[in-house]
Amino acid sequence: MPLLVCLPGGGYNASYFDVPGYSLVDAARREGFPVVSLDRPGYGGSTRWGARFRSAGMLRCSRGPSPNSGTGTSRTPPGSSSSDTR
User: Fold this and answer.
1) Which of the residues 3, 5, 40, 70 has an alpha carbon 20 to 30 A from that of 46?
2) Residue 5: φ, ψ to 5°
3) pLDDT, tens digit, for every residue of 63-86?
4) How many helices (H) and strands (E) does the chain have?
5) How many CB atoms lie within 10 A of CB 9?
């Protein structure tokens, strides 16, 4: 059975998927689907990303050249090369 993961975009929070009378969460449960509706950091009941994430290297914000390219933000994940074609 697939799990439905509802992640809202824009300025919405998890309650977007659970509006009384139009609830995707309720409809999915009625049909037997497991469902979870999540808040992104800083929205709804979640907390904002904090210094603990930045210091742990989990949140990376580039405001200038990437240390490995010298020309801007590198989008190549660690351990791979830009020539990887997966």
Assistant:
1) 3
2) -110, 115
3) 555 455 455 444 445 555 555 454
4) 2, 2
5) 7
